[in-house]
Input
Amino acid sequence: MHKGSCLCGVVEYEVNGPLGDIMYCHCSRCRKAGGAAFAAVSAVKTADFSIVKGQDALKTYRTDGGVERIFCGHCGSPLITKRETQPEVVRLRIGSLDTPAEKKVAMHIFVGSKADWDDIHDAAPQFAERP
Output
């Protein structure tokens, strides 16, 4: 099991299953949503993910493309992303974990639109878009 929380601790969650591959997403939407060069995410089965504290503090931003970005309404910490086309999976923001992930980055995605000031210095595979 993995546990995580937002920056202010109002929201806490649990993952009662395995984490998927860790991906660094360099798309412009992830950069804007997190204010960083990329988002570190892992796919987790929706059935394995649960909010154990602070459900009422969660806020959702929904894009025109059917993507929901869910974050703490108090501190703004991004926690998960859901896609309308993939209801069986949530993409967990790995930086919000309180327990070790026990994995390393498996790939970089959307490097075709990465920030021009960002250089990738690891050996993980890179994909211009989603593989």
In short: Helices lie at 28-34. DSSP finds one helix and ten strands in the chain. Residues 2-113 form a domain with the Metal Binding Protein, Guanine Nucleotide Exchange Factor; Chain A fold (CATH 2.170.150.70). The beta strands are 2-5, 12-15, 22-25, 39-45, 49-53, 58-62, 67-72, 78-83, 86-93, 105-109.
